[in-house]
Amino acid sequence: MPISTGSQDCLTDLTQFGADPGLLHAYTYIPQSYSKNGPLVVVLHGSTQSAESYNRGAGWSELADQCGAALLYPEQRKTNNPISSFNWFKSGDSRRDAGEPLSIHHMIERVISEHAIDPARVFITGMSSGGAMTSVMLATYPEVFAGGAIIAGLPYRSADNLMQAAIRMKGYGGPSDHKLDALVREASTFEGPWPTISVWHGGSDSTVATANADSIVRQWQQIHQVEGPPTRIETVEGVPRQVWCNDKGREVIEEYIIEGMGHGTPIMAGGDDGLGEEDKYMLEVGISSTRQIARFWGLVA
Question: InterPro entries attached here (predicted)?
Answer without folding.
Answer: AB_hydrolase_fold, Esterase_phb, Plant_Biomass_Hydrol_Est
